[in-house]
Amino acid sequence: MDSAPGQHESRMPEPSASSPVAASAPGKLVLCGEYAVLDGAPAICMAVDRRARVTIDRAAGDHHVVSAPGFSSVTGRFTDRNGDCEWVSGAQEYRLVNDVWRTAQMQCNTPLSIKLDTNEFLDPRSGAKFGIGSSAALTVALVAGLCKVVATTVDATSIAFAAHRHFQGGLGSGADIACCSAGGLIEYRLRAGPAEQLAWPDGLAYAFLWSGMSTGTKAKLEQLGKYDRRPTRAALAESAMRMSQAWRDGTAKAILDEYRDYTRVLREFSVDHELGIFDAGHGELTASADAAGLVYKPCGAGGGDVGVVLAEDPAAIRAFVDTGLPANFRAMDMGIDLCGVRVAREEL
To answer: How far apart are the first and last CA of the chain?
Structure first.
């Protein structure tokens, strides 16, 4: 899972057919267990119905061609050199393609045209990222597409884990790759085998709110790494264990009750490590939701991106959203995606 690029035992063969391949994978949000998952605690993650899409076809000319409309105006061009990429243009813009290609040890001299689409992960007003796992979803879709092109039976998920970890500079737990691959609602534990699929609890309503501000997970993890282990870090792991049990029990009331303690512990952990998880308005929404008898928390790294509001009564959530969110927040039309990665020799 954590092998370095270029260290897989066998290389992928040449493409076996000429028809285009289309692959897609959903985004993800961490509902609880953020940061604690790094210490072996379980994280509950939800795949969301915004998908990264990859289309791979034959290319004219002598180079592999990479494009990402809406993300970059640069067209990437490279040649394969024994499983490595020799870039003519776009090396910086398409680092993720480079890491996937090297990790998979692609053996492909037939020029490919690779089109990347993550527009569903961007705010159409500002162009800012929502923070719902675009790089993980794109990694999963790209690996699946390349595996389909060359008709290989290698473990695509293992390649995606290793490539994305390298792309992130060795940081992260891999929960995002697991969720984007599997879809639905999962419980994930670091180095504990495949993620476990969970059913969405009956009677638990939710809505997602966009903070209007992107945040960087890598920067947050680097900040966490500056500190020795403190009691609040252990407390967060213990609270994540209790949250996991509540989700497994599948009772909406038990989940909501446990969240109230979890958000308190998460806030103490954030303050203790100067992470700013509840910045950008998340703290104010947490307090106002609690006063209204609801639960609200930032998802994942926090300090921006997306938060989730939860309740047993959908009408209560609608009233909370309609009553007046902070000026920078707005509701997102987004829900659970039960399907994980998809790939076919046709448009998805």
So the answer is: 28
Q: What is the pLDDT along the chain (348 residues), one digit of tens a residue?
A: 334 344 444 456 555 556 899 999 999 999 999 999 999 999 999 999 999 999 999 999 999 999 999 889 999 999 998 888 999 999 999 999 999 999 998 878 789 999 999 999 999 989 999 999 999 999 999 999 999 998 777 889 999 999 999 999 999 999 999 999 999 999 999 988 889 999 999 999 999 999 999 998 889 999 999 999 899 999 999 999 999 999 999 899 999 999 999 999 999 999 999 999 999 999 999 999 999 999 999 998 999 999 999 999 999 999 999 988 998 999 999 999 999 999 998 644
> Would the pTM of this model clear 0.85, i.e. be above it?
yes
> Starting at the edge strand that comes first in sequence, how are the strands of the sheet with 205-210 ordered?
295-298, 306-311, 205-210, 330-332
Domain 21-191+336-344 CATH (choose: 3.40.50.1980, 3.30.230.10, 2.30.42.10, 3.30.930.10): 3.30.230.10
Neighbours of 108 (CB within 10 A): 20
Helices (H) and strands (E) in the chain, counts: 9, 13
CA gap 40, 46 in Å, rounded = 18
Superfamily of domain 201-332: GHMP kinase, C-terminal domain (3.30.70.890)
